[in-house]
């Protein structure tokens, strides 16, 4: 991310030195955009791995690097250019994350799978620096990213004649990170422009609560058979345990906070209307 920010700043100053005939319009604008993010800054998550039993007493395990920030996104942005070079923008984006799957296979054919995906609303307040070249307007954005949403974990275990499934949602909590982008505006008419940009996100999300929303055995709903402590988790800064005390099942269990990676790099295409 630091390399990207440095490259962005260098590019901005390089572009700002170019002479041209077109200019970014002073005043307000509004735009819509869609795009796709690929994983960047992916990291290993505990117990998220591929495991294959290769013999009676042997197995192979591969850790999977995960970023929940990959997937489709769509959004809207509003901004104001103080002049043709400097402005501010607030973008609102909805991320529909792609699924990443881990599997555990045994010699007898038993298989368990774990899929993780995300949905997140992201706000992007940014500084906009633009310059102009013939017929196009290159620009760069630097700013914060605020996100809130949920991470869905879908687990399925096939053991003999039994199939067990469980869906858990991790949510609440505010993610704070950084975003950077480099793009180009292409004029379509006096007030309308087409934009194409490459954007990067550096973000981690620490949910505050986990809830089991579905639990089935051979297709039958068994959610009601779980205790409160089995269904609900509260993530806390420090997890404390007392092994001499009886387990409390009537309240959510506590677990040390986790940080889930949401880094990405992607391409956005959009249309802007300048007032």
What does this structure look like?
- With 275 residues, the protein is mainly beta.
- 7% of the residues lie in helices and 63% in strands.
- It is built from 2 helices and 18 strands.
- The strands form 2 sheets. It has an 8-stranded antiparallel β-barrel with strand order 1-4-5-7-8-10-11-18. A two-stranded antiparallel ribbon has the order 12-17.
- The radius of gyration is 24 Å and the shape is elongated.
- The relative contact order is 0.20.
- Residues 8-22 have low confidence and may be disordered.
Draw up the topology in text.
Layout: H1 2-16, E1 27-39, E2 43-53, E3 59-66, E4 71-81, E5 86-97, E6 100-105, E7 111-130, E8 137-159, E9 162-171, E10 175-187, E11 192-202, E12 204-205, E13 209-217, E14 220-221, H2 228-231, E15 232-236, E16 253-256, E17 260-261, E18 264-274
Parallel strand pairs: 2-6, 15-16
Antiparallel strand pairs: 1-4, 1-18, 2-3, 4-5, 5-7, 6-7, 7-8, 8-9, 8-10, 9-13, 10-11, 11-18, 12-17, 13-14, 13-15
